């Protein structure tokens, strides 16, 4: 069942899901990271994460056991297409509405997103299975394997400011999850599409950013133009949290090495 961005304040039965692009997590695909940039292990600390028990409350329903991949090599960022003027204390209720809309109105087995982040920078566990494990999500049609889905609570279309605390929390979460597989948040990775409803045919290999927007894998406006435009900075923040060199410094080092190698070759040829 496709889903992309979900309003979080309407009653569960009347919930209208705003974009397509999320599917049940029973897909089968293979993916392998591209050794672009530095593939040495760089880890980041786990940020504080509010457990799902805080928001699910009595809305909990029976569901099958979680499904897992071998690791996470990419992150897809979403927005929930819901109002931005909420009080952060209301975030658990908004997440519960999302959950009820997906599990009741759509008859999904769980919320599709692995994590959700509110405008104050609080990170919430979404889909069940354990925040530290590579849980197969249901957030990006065709690319739910070896990825994790992070949803920003709100609507971030063109001109809407993205709260700095939210950006920072997304970067911290991405740095931690990608660090477990040694993936540089600024790199590109190979993912294999498992659904032709994505931007890629079934079985096609896609080169996508390790920290991508929903629209990179599916035809949608999610995560909104404003949040999509902030992804380069979020990638840099995540890389810094993994103790990686800034892009400019890394490029300069590569250029110096190339110049030294060219000089060595030229000298040997004399």
UniProtKB/TrEMBL annotation:
Residues 239-259 have a biased composition (Basic and acidic residues). InterPro entries: Amidase/PGRP_sf, Amidase_domain, PGRP, PGRP_domain_met/bac. Residues 47-196 form the Peptidoglycan recognition protein family domain. Residues 1-25 form the signal peptide. Pfam families: Amidase_2. Gene3D superfamilies: Peptidoglycan recognition protein-like. Residues 239-270 are annotated as: Disordered. Keywords: Signal. Belongs to the N-acetylmuramoyl-L-alanine amidase 2 family. This is Peptidoglycan recognition protein.
């Amino acid at each position: 069942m496709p889903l992309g961005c979900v309003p979080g304040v309407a009653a569960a039965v009347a919930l209208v899901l705003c974009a397509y692009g999320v599917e049940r997590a029973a897909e089968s695909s293979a993916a392998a990271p591209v050794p672009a940039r530095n593939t040495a292990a760089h880890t980041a600390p786990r940020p504080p994460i509010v457990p799902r028990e805080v928001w699910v409350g009595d809305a909990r329903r029976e569901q099958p056991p979680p499904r897992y991949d071998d690791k996470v090599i990419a992150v897809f960022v979403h927005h929930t297409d819901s109002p931005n003027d909420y009080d952060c204390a209301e975030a658990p209720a908004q997440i519960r509405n999302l959950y009820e809309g997906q599990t009741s109105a759509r008859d999904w087995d769980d919320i599709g997103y692995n994590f959700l982040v509110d405008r104050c920078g609080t990170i919430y566990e979404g889909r069940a299975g354990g925040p530290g494990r590579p849980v197969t999500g249901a957030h990006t049609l065709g690319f739910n394997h070896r990825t994790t889905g992070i949803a920003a609570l709100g609507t971030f279309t063109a001109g809407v400011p993205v709260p700095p605390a939210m950006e920072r929390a997304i970067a911290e979460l991405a740095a931690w999850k990608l660090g477990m597989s040694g993936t540089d948040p600024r790199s590109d990775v190979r993912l294999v599409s498992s659904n032709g409803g994505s931007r890629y045919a079934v079985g096609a290999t896609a080169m996508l950013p390790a920290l991508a927007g929903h629209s990179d894998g599916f035809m949608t406006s999610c995560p909104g133009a404003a949040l999509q435009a902030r992804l380069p900075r979020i990638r840099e923040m995540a890389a810094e949290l993994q103790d990686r060199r800034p892009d400019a410094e890394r490029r300069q080092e590569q250029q110096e090495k190339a110049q030294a190698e060219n000089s060595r070759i030229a000298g040997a040829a004399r």
